[in-house]
Amino acid sequence: MKFKASATAEDVTGTVKDAEHFQYGEETMLAWKEGRLSADITEEHRKLSEAAVVVFQFPMYWFTVPAIMKGWMDRVLTLGFAYTSEKRYSQGIFKDKKAMLSFTTGSHESMFSANGINGDMNVTLWPLQNGILHYCGFQVLAPQIFWPPPHIPSESRCSMLEAWRTRLEGLLGETPLYFTPSDSFDGGRGFQLKEDIQEKHAAKKFGLTVGTHLGKPLPPNSQIKAGVK
């Protein structure tokens, strides 16, 4: 596709509102409302609007998505189209759609464990799954992780693909990952977890999520396996 990764003023056609102090989010939101976004962004918006499930397939680079995919997120998840300050997280615009990450790694699973040199994969995935997908309202399905294909036998790679093929057949019926609902936070207190919910979980062993952990141990595998709460 030769998709342009960098978010620039070129994403807006016609005159911008404030060329001297260009603010990308505000300018692209206005352009989206007026039908003045660049054609490549508009085409991706069309695809997203029609999709029931969005699968982000990528090789993990530096513990995150490659630059071109991050650029797609920067440019296509436009303010207004994909989220607003009122419509985000569990009240997000895409709350009727599902999304998931499917990626290959360069390190073995043991290296991404709580005791591993790379750290807990649940922590690595939190910014992507909560801060991007769930932020836009998506029901986030458990990730499909292909542990280091270059370092395993060809038979194991074939088994991975077969498992993925089988999973795809039932993907629409899967239970999404758990994220703390938006109404659990008090907007009048800087969007802090409500006191009654904090009290309710005070005696529990684990925090609510990787991000909202209440100073407790992180809930195991909450960003990797569906239904973990």
Automatic annotation (TrEMBL):
Residues 18-165 form the Flavodoxin-like fold domain. GO terms for molecular function: NAD(P)H dehydrogenase (quinone) activity. It comes from the Eukaryota. GO terms for cellular component: cytosol. The keyword Iron-sulfur does not apply. The keyword tRNA processing does not apply. SUPFAM superfamilies: Flavoproteins (SSF52218). InterPro entries: Flavodoxin_fold, Flavoprotein-like_sf, NAD(P)H_dehydrogenase_qn. Keywords: Oxidoreductase. Belongs to the NAD(P)H dehydrogenase (quinone) family. PANTHER family: NAD P H OXIDOREDUCTASE-RELATED, NAD(P)H DEHYDROGENASE [QUINONE] 1 ISOFORM 1. This is NAD(P)H quinone dehydrogenase 1. It comes from Salmo trutta (Brown trout).
